Amino acid sequence: MTDLPHARDSWLSSVSHQQWLQDQGQALLDFAKASRVPDGFASLDRFGQRPNDAPADTVTTARMVHSFALAHIQGLPGCAPLIDHGLAALDGPLRDAEHGGWFAAPRAQDGNTRKAAYLHAFVALAAGSAAVAGRGGSANLLGDAVEVLEAHFWSEEEGALLESFANDWSDCEAYRGANSNMHGTEAFLSLADVLDEDLWLDRALRIAERVIHQQAAQSDYLPVEHFDALWQPLPDYNRDNPADGFRPFGKTPGHAFEWARLLLHLEAARKQRGLPCPDWLLEDARHLFHSACTYGWNVDGNTGIVYTLDWDNRPVVRERLHWTLAEAAAAAAALVQRTGELGYEDWYQRFWDYIDLHMIDRRDGSWHHELGPDNLPSETIWPGKPDLYHAYQATLLPRLPLAISLASALKLRR
Predict the structure, then answer these.
(1) Which three-class secondary structure state does DSSP give residue 353?
(2) Domains of the chain
(3) pTM for the whole thing?
């Protein structure tokens, strides 16, 4: 249990709530097991079925490996073969055997041969969690992922990840993305733990300082998502395609929640390893959470968190996405753990009440990945239910300490 100043008042200290989270996690895992295909893992539709033509993709495969590794570490049956299947796919049809790194789809059969930082961050995360789970081949995959990150994506000069390259590592994209660097930060936190190397925490701090402490602090603590190669904001980026699933126009409250949580993990990890730890990590986490709640929650007359905002913090895309709520609950839990303040506990309970009443699909399973502004199921941005990772982590994070990786924390609990 989490030792809080107001422990008796927190759901984090409730045996019943802990069991509820565990049960929800098991249901999410059971639903996701149907996503296995020969070349990895594919997206499921809203009924939990795989369309006949559903292709594997690398992000889904890596997220499934990571999630099933976390489950296996806990002693949950049926996950080890799925981890091994995903590792084989990442070491086979999803890998570029000629130039190294990974394609978005097996053998780049979707026509996209570019190598993206976002995707490679998830490969590293998956390999690290599988290594903690003790799965064969994971150590070699982890070594390969780290080599690619260091050789191509990490920019020591910029203190951040470069965005993407052509398949032969030429043609560096003249764009810098907060989203890829956010998931790079997540991967680096895991690598620091799994590899026992402080270097990754220093790199994570450099990313956070650039993207959050310098840029988001100038934008009401809602992360600026898009930059040019000189890290100048691109305020009109995707204005004509505002609902893009990965690079939407404007600001994304869900990423403010996610960054808030990651800053607290980074603070805890650096403290645990005796590294210098700036005060702004906690201060910025508070600001990010406050802004996401202020500008994202119930701002269009209906309950829930909108997907995006414009530069005046007005709603643009009003759909409610499941990952946003998952990250909101996880961020609130992290702030409860870090501060013991009941204001964050109130938000934590509010977010889970919303998830329970609106997001959890008790008829067809898992969570609705998208709701419309009326809080009814929608599929305008994300069709089906392809994602296990966000919701499953939301059921685990409130039960674990802020420091060390999810995989290592679960292993210590056994």
Answers:
(1) helix
(2) 7-413 (1.50.10.10)
(3) 0.97
